[in-house]
Amino acid sequence: MDSKISQREQWTSKLGFILAAVGSAVGLGNLWGFAYRASQGGGAAFVLLYVLIVLIVCLPVFVAELALGKNAMASSLLAPVKLGGTNWSPLGVLFFLAPIGILSYYSVIMGWAADTFFHSLLFGLPKDLSEAKEFFGSVSSGSSVLLGHSLSLVLTALIVSSGVKRGIEKITKSFMPILFIILFMLTIWAGSLSGAWEGYQTFLFKFDFDQLKNPTTIRNAFSQAFFSLSLGIGIMVAYGSYLSKKSNLPKLSFGVASLDTLVGLMAGLITFPIFLTFGLSDSISDSTIGALFISIPTGLGSAGILGRIVAIAFFGLVYIAAITSSVSLLEVPVSSLMDKFRFDRNKSVWLVAIFVFILGIPSALDTNTLGTFDSVCNILLIFGGFLVTFFMGWVVPKKLDSEIDVSKVGVKTARYLKFMTKWICPPLIAFGFLISLFDLLKGWLS
Predict the structure, then answer these.
(1) Which residues lie below 8 Å from residue 419, measured CB to CB, with a gap of 6+?
(2) How many angstroms separate the CA atoms of 433 and 410, rounded?
(3) What share of the chain is helix, strand, coil (3-state, %, to 5)?
């Protein structure tokens, strides 16, 4: 098995890794989750917490996950065992199962996005809110939702089956520039709307200090940070195992986190002006899907042909972002099966894809089930982040030291990352996990 693990593919370039990692990070968590969570969490208070968590907590976690994968040169399932022994096999199992759970409902939402894109392209947009709700009801139920779920998984599987270089890296190199161009154009357009400044003030610049103590806001900020950066579920462990030995992990981590945070903020700069311009501010926080699949089509539908063009671009953007994330979710269990059982890539891909499709059927048939899956998986992300920092900071600290090259990052940066990983991140993440778990259970029981 060790010889099998050692014969791993590698990214062809630093840019290839960055685009693949950004592609994994930039997805529905930014375009779907950011607006919803910011509207729930008092706008600027949520954004402040989110940015602080990214800078203080997630950057060291990012480096720790890359270091784990790069040092072990193994899949996410086997990397903790290879470095820490069999007692750490549960962490590998968490890394194996969590991406499967997320992908099972993620592909359902991808199907909704594809359906909305083609409906905007071929038939137009809803005329009002009631028609938008009726349209989403048709998109999220019946045979069409299972079709969208299955086709999204097939597309994801075809990309991953082509391998790291010819599949994941190639598709992200092609898609990510397109994504950033569309995102930039939509941000400029949204900024020109009549309700743009009011939208920024209402959702991004309005600061409520009480929200900093709100467990829901804290949970949303932790969930958004970990979900949007693909942390705590083994993706960066798997991607780190394909890095060359010369890679500068802190620099790569900072670059990916910066781009991901920028995309999240730009997503807010797009969506919030739409809500205020078209009088939809009350509907944004009604449900987890209201902001993206009901409010935005409603608002753009009242803007005539320009609104339709923007809708086509926006939901095309959503699907591109989603596919670059879904391939990373699938790669984690696929690479694990390849390493553990010596399956070839094609066999591993289709075994996992079939299982994910079956697991996702309940989410496809019931949006409440989908919401429950999402909440549980977000908790697992945070817990996984805690285990990674504890593992790399306390169990195998010398492995982390060996992957933070002082000659490249400097003594201060190296000391900072080691200190944060060992002493600061574990208790902070544990706090975030306990607050999130308490808030989630309280919501379920109330």
Answers:
(1) none
(2) 32
(3) 85, 0, 15
